[in-house]
Amino acid sequence: MKIAIPNLELASPLLANLETVCAEAGIEVRTATLEQCGELLFANMVDAALVSPLGYGMGVGRVDYRIVGGPCVALRDYTNTYGASFSEGSLDLASYTSSEPHAFMTLMMRMAMTEKFDVDLALANDPGKADCVIGPAVSGMHQALDLGEEWFDIAESPLPLAMWVIRVDAESENFEDIVNRACTAGLTERPVSEVVPLHADHSPREGAILYRWSESIEEGLLATLNTLYFHQHLAEIPAIKLLGRD
Asked: Which of 1, 63, 84, 103 is deepest in the core (most CB within 10 A)?
């Protein structure tokens, strides 16, 4: 069996014991970007992978997938992991720059801004003249918009970032057990609270990074797939199929 994992720091708690578990099970592991993991799974170059909702939706009508309802990564409200900041002196909101313009989280940030502010951001030809910067949060720097918070405001549900997906024709009878043993023991969520100055004019924003599949994450996945379809990033909306349930 072959699997693909993303070089995504947020997913590292899901992979804490992966090397040992896969060595015991004789599983070959490939490392790629989150977006490439979806492509590898779709191309049948791996049997299972940690993929984004876009990676899952890529197979609709062409490949039969199942989601493992266990370890995953999702953002609930404010998480200070990814967002957008506005360029100083910018009078418009039409262009953006990013160190990872084709990343799933960049796409979701752009769509969230379209949904909330009715703007259609184009990648700037000159990064120095972009109206906003989209990317990971940097320690000590304030981002005007937080991806998890903006999405939660729109969908009232968490934003799934990465989930284990397996092809139905994969030869593995215990894959659910493998991914559960691979993650950090007792892993459920990591609460996040905004650090604000002592006399700030607002209370700290709060949220959590979620690491365990739940009904609310399933609702968030459906909302995400609907949004991706509405913005023409998916040809149709795939059904949410869980391993052992559907």
From this structure: 84
